[in-house]
Design a protein that fits this description.
Aspartate Aminotransferase, domain 1; 17 strands
């Protein structure tokens, strides 16, 4: 696959006099020109509130908004467009399920299964529900390789298990979890499964019919789209049983001071004026991904991952975190006693952007008995030259500390 750096305006600049090498796509991806232009064009020509006006601009805006919903449905092979909910991001999507589904269906002593590798976005909402309702959290251990202990997972189920909430891919380890097996085990116990797909959706094809999960979430900004837009997919039968946790305009059929009648799916979960421009920008991002081809993106990023892994292993003192055979383009490591923030600062002066810290995964840091680590993560715009620049930057780190 050709590296389309020219499609991304941000790479035309230098950082500290060096060409920008961006290796933090797991945090957020850079934006191609087509996305930036689509947002600008929308504001210049089609901007108006959706679902509210009978005038031309509003009808145009509504068409573009719903066109994106259909695009998402096609992209993830959902059964219906009304199963696609717009949110502000993966975090809000998980909170929506925790509050709208959890507060209705869970009670004290009920159990939710999570894993040690979850992002805080898939931990904190359930901890909040634990405080509100008195539910219990049961945790799937992570093996030294960075894979889930599936034998331990099967033993966590009981008659009180009400939900499994699991990441499709780890933002720290890169591990791609065996979702079909995880979901099948849960469904055999008649337990629904929520999947945090934030780290998977931009890097591989996802198919709701094949996975058969009950909820799936992801964010536009990690998939070359704008910030402030997320997707919650949910099966119709579950969404219909859920009560909205936010109220306001556009999500109702009738309002009086005595009774509220909620709107139909998906609108009952989309209170208030939405991020219309963000939705339009996300359509452009999905178009871009379709043009690049998800299979080509997977192949490119896997080749880059293999190349970077071999280079990183050759650096003296490096301890890799997560060596699962099935990974997305994420590499995390620690280097002797050098603090990750020091490594990040030195690399920044070489024009290289990496992530250093706990990566919103404190329980996983505790598992590996480290306070933080360094992470590099790839997007479709990265190349072997970027990896080589990173390796040269690591030589600078060794020079400073040795």
């Amino acid at each position: 696959m050709q590296v389309y750096k020219k499609d991304f305006p941000i790479f035309s600049q230098t950082i500290h006099g060096k060409p920008l090498v961006y290796l933090d796509s797991s945090s957020t991806s850079q934006k191609p020109s087509c996305v930036i232009e689509a947002i600008a064009h929308y504001y210049q020509h089609n901007y108006a509130n959706v679902h509210r006006g009978v005038y031309e601009l509003s009808e145009r805006s509504t068409h573009l908004y719903e066109k994106t919903r259909k695009k998402v449905q096609w992209f993830i092979n959902a059964a219906h467009t009304h199963e696609i909910l717009f949110t502000r991001g993966t975090t809000e999507s998980i909170n929506l399920v925790a509050q709208s589904y959890g507060r209705t269906h869970f009670k004290a002593e009920d159990e939710i299964i999570l894993s040690e590798m979850e992002h805080h976005s898939n931990i904190v909402p359930w901890c909040m529900l634990q405080e509100q309702l008195g539910i219990k959290l049961k945790i799937i251990p992570v093996l030294e390789t960075g894979e889930l202990d599936l034998l331990a997972y099967e033993k966590l189920f009981s008659s009180r298990t009400k939900m499994v909430a699991i990441s499709h891919a780890s933002n720290v380890l890169g591990t791609i979890n065996p979702l079909k097996k995880i979901i099948a085990i849960a469904h055999a116990a008649k337990v629904p499964v929520l999947v945090d797909g934030a780290q998977a959706f931009p890097h591989m094809p996802v198919d709701m019919q094949l996975l058969d999960c009950d909820f799936y979430t992801f964010s536009a900004h990690k998939a070359y789209g704008p910030t402030g837009i997320g997707i919650l997919y949910g099966k119709t039968a579950l969404l219909e049983k859920m009560v909205p946790y936010q109220g306001g305009g556009s999500m109702i059929e009738k309002v009086s001071f005595k009774k509220i009648t909620y709107g139909q799916l998906p609108y009952k979960f989309e209170a208030g004026t939405p991020n219309m421009a963000g939705v339009v920008g996300f359509y452009a991002a999905l178009d871009y991904l379709e043009k690049m081809g998800m299979k080509a993106i997977v192949q490119h990023e896997q080749e880059l991952l293999a190349y970077a892994t071999s280079k990183l292993k050759a650096i003296p003192g490096v301890r890799l975190l997560g060596t699962a055979p099935d990974k997305v383009g994420v590499l995390s490591f620690v280097l002797n006693d050098i603090h990750p923030h020091d490594i990040g600062t030195i690399l920044d002066h070489e024009g290289i952007a990496i992530r250093a810290g706990h990566h919103c995964a404190m329980p996983l840091m505790e598992k590996y008995q480290i306070p933080a680590c360094v992470r590099l993560s790839f997007g479709l715009y990265n190349s072997r030259e970027d990896v080589d620049a990173f390796v040269a930057g690591m030589q600078k780190v060794h020079e400073v500390f040795n």
